[in-house]
Amino acid sequence: MSTARQRAERPAAGERPDYEVVVIGAGFGGIGMGVELRKAGIHNFLIVDKNSDIGGTWHANTYPGVAVDIPSVYYSFSYEPPKQWSRMFAPGAEVKAYADQVVDAYGLRSRIRLNTTVVGGEWDEQRQLWRGRTDTGEEVTSRFVVGAVGGLEVPKLPEIEGIDKFAGKVVHTAKWDHDYDYRGKRIAVIGTGATALQLIPELADIASRLTVFQRRPIWVVPKADFPIPELAKNIMVNVGPLRRAIRAAVTLGIDFGISGVGVFHSYIPGIVQLAQRGGGALYKAQLPGNAELAARLTPDYAPGCKRPSVSNRYLQTFTEEHVELVTEPIQKITKTGVVTADGQLRKIDVLVCATGFRVMEKGYTPPYPLIGRDGLELGEFWDRERYQAYQGVSVPKFPNLFLITGPYGFAAGSYLAMIECTSRHAARAIKEANRRGATAVEIKQEPHDAYFRKCRKRGAQTMWLSEACADSNTYYVNYQGDPAPIRPSTHVEMWWGNKHFPFSHYSFTTRPATLATPVERKSVGAR
Are 442 and 514 in contact (CB under 8 A)? Predict the structure, then answer.
């Protein structure tokens, strides 16, 4: 690592990168990438993260009730069974512990540098390397860069008049303040998404009064959650074939139940309408004698438009006397409370913002400038030309850059399943570049464009862009009106495309040998 002055004093010829690979992000994306690099025989890499600990969203999100919303067996890497998960839907602390388990099992701890924020990066064409900048003014050079910053990274605060004037406590779910005493307080929650449905029942247990401001209701199905017996846990850990078979069955179920319907709903006439009617009947059954409440909580968009959510307590929470569901739009926030469009002021002590994240928005994805060939900045390119990446991993004019959660990369289901696919893609390309002695590997324009056209064509026919999801405000559709956060395919197709892409889709170029070999560093992150 070096300062700007030291860079200016370097001779142009013979400069070698500090690391072969720099991975940005130490959440599961960066961890999974580190594992794949180890498997590929690549050990001179550095994983950097702005946080004080690993885990990404599972380090940041510690609000009461946080847990996975798909079966635990699918929210894990196929090659590393969780050893400590106690429930069918693992709580957040156990997921964080699993991140530590993987890091230690694959010897990644020495390769991670925390409390380091990347503020930008630029491709050096002459030397065939990336120059990354940190918030301390340091420069880190590497032959390859892998962006492993997740989609649920930058919290989104509500843009409501007066929120900065509220005299009480304001907290976003991604930055939960555990030092504050919420017990006995008048608490208001803005948002009714996948996070809110986990948090709201927990807050109802301790609040003197809980007010939930609902802009759009959410579909919720019963949560088949239960403790995992010790014997079953041991079998899952030690009997690999059985665990893989169970995981495959869950994968296929989610593939056809969520991804398949979302992508191929037009081939199953009436399936969306049937699901919507069935969902409405389920809400009424769970709230007997509360038809009016059930109607207010029932979405008018189809199930599957947003990430499916599970809970056994969410709907029933609104039947408690001290819990109020407010569907009137918020007009403003005052020093003492929230004013709705009907002019009513509800006084509160705590304002909880369960308002999600900035997913594939300009300036936030990526959350730092990346400049490739010809001065092209990735965020500006995506803003101008729409979000796009081959297999969700590679973009033309950005050689030696790979993405873990890129546009059209995630087949709706498990993020960890996607991470396995995209990280293996990146490691496979890097390993092949090394085998050929290439100093640059770049996706060719034609196969990239063919993949983008396919995604755009399929995306236009998905349920997420249909009338059934018109009022869902789903993060599956970005500000450009594209379902770019989602790969319009099944998990099986995602797995196959990343595992078997032909090397002919990439160009491999070589510079002089003096520039080709990274130096094994003995500083922070070196083994």
Answer: no
Largest CA distance in the chain: 79
Rounded alpha-carbon distances, angstroms, from residue 515 to 6, 128, 399, 518? 18, 8, 16, 8
Give 211-233 as a 3 state SS string.
EEECCCCCCEECCCCCECCHHHH
Please, which pLDDT band fits residue 250 given cuts at 50, 70 and 90?
Answer: confident
Tokens read off for 16: 């070698």
Q: What share of the chain is helix, strand, coil (3-state, %, to 5)?
A: 35, 20, 45
CA distances from 195 to 42, 60, 158, 199 (A): 37, 13, 15, 6
CB-count burial class (<10 Å; 0-12, 13-18, 19+) for 150: buried
Tokens of 401: 């850059």
**% the chain with pLDDT above 70:** 93
Cα torsion 315, 317, 322, 327 to 10°: value is: -30
Non-local (6+) Cβ contacts of 252 within 8 A are none
**Edge to edge, what strands does the sheet with 323-326 contain?**
169-172, 350-353, 186-190, 209-213, 323-326
User: Does the pLDDT at position 115 exceed 60?
Assistant: yes
Q: Which two tokens stand for residue 97?
A: 């512990």
pLDDT in tens, 4-62: 444 434 434 347 899 999 999 999 999 999 999 999 999 999 999 999 999 999 999 99
Residues 33 and 5 sit within 8 Å (Cβ to Cβ): no
- CA-wise closest residue to 469 among 309, 305, 306, 308: 305
End-to-end CA distance of the chain: 16
Query: How many of the other CB atoms lie within 10 Å of CB of 194?
Result: 19
| Percent residues over pLDDT 90 in the chain | 71
Cα angle 264, 270, 273; round to 5: 105
Question: Is the bond preceding 288 in cis, omega lying within 30 degrees of 0?
Answer: no
Pairing of strands 337-340, 330-333: antiparallel
Segments in 69-221 forming alpha helices (H): 92-105, 194-204
Tell me how crowded residue 232 is: count the other CB atoms within 10 A of its CB: 10
Q: Two tokens at 411?
A: 């087949």
CB-CB contact of 491 with 259 (8 Å): yes
pTM: predicted TM-score of the whole model, two decimal places: 0.91
Q: Say which DSSP state 44 is in.
A: -
Cα–Cα dist 260/487, whole Å: 11
The secondary structure of residue 36, as a DSSP letter, is H
Question: Would you state the torsion angle of the CA atoms of residues 27, 33, 37, 39, taken in this order, to the nearest 10 degrees?
Answer: 100
Spatial distance between the Cα atoms of 48 and 36, rounded to a whole number of angstroms: 16
